[in-house]
Please model this.
Amino acid sequence: MLLGAHVSISGGYSNAAIEAHRLGIDAIQIFSKNQRTWAEKTVSPEEGLTFRKACAQYGVKQAFSHSIYLISLGTENEEIAQKSMLSLAMELERCRVLGLSHTVLHPGAAGSLSMPAAIERIGWRIKKVLEATKGNPVKILLENTAGQGSSVGGKLENIAALVDTISSKRIGICIDTCHAFAAGYDIRDKKGIDKFFKELDQRIGLEKLLCFHLNDSKGGLGSRLDRHAHIGEGLLGLAPFEYIMQNFQHVPKVLETSKENDADKKNISLLRELAGKKRKTK
Ligand SMILES: [Zn+2]
Ligand SMILES: [Zn+2]
Model:
């Protein structure tokens, strides 16, 4: 069972693997560079090798990157669009050198464009990045969003349309439980969870689901608020986490919740407990 958390690379990439070891997790997500700036960073083959060795040594079996939030592929500003495409291409290259298999990406915002037009534009730009990085095996995972503002990806049909538009083997999806709930999917009970995954399977295909972000939600159903809570301490309850832990054992999962008081440890042990719980009959 691949389970872990977003961890810091402060002080060097290998520190992420050391932190994983301390937490007793085998999956991690990192920012491969400072996420607050456009300034680029290249990773040398030596740095890549050191990180790969650290992952092997400290038991990290799956490592994701999260693309920086500045990337805005739906923008009408051509300069930002160019920067965004370059940034994503560089992200894929760093991932390749570091041995990270996937980067998680927020699709972007529609701005004044209609949703279909925005999806077409974002899809076209992602295609260009994939063409420019041909031969690089790293996949882009489109993450569902809380649907805040004009963001693309709150609705499964938008992600499905984007996946269809790009039509590449290097595209998958990442589902964030907090975002799904905030975007209006009521996944608080089994009926709602079944419905959500059935729709996901019909529109996108469960085989494209390659990562979970397990976060409880401070915002209510349909609030469009992207505010993560610790597992069991938000408005989602434990049912969706129990369901995912038991029914999607093969899909890696990472926490993106706050780190104060060593909270990752507590969240991880709770999730493990849910994975082992006897399946409820009702
Ligand atoms: Zn997330
Ligand atoms: Zn979020």
Observations:
- The beta strands are 3-6, 27-30, 62-66, 102-105, 139-143, 171-176, 209-214, 216-217, 228-229, 253-255.
- The two ends are 25 Å apart (CA to CA).
- DSSP finds nine helices and ten strands in the chain.
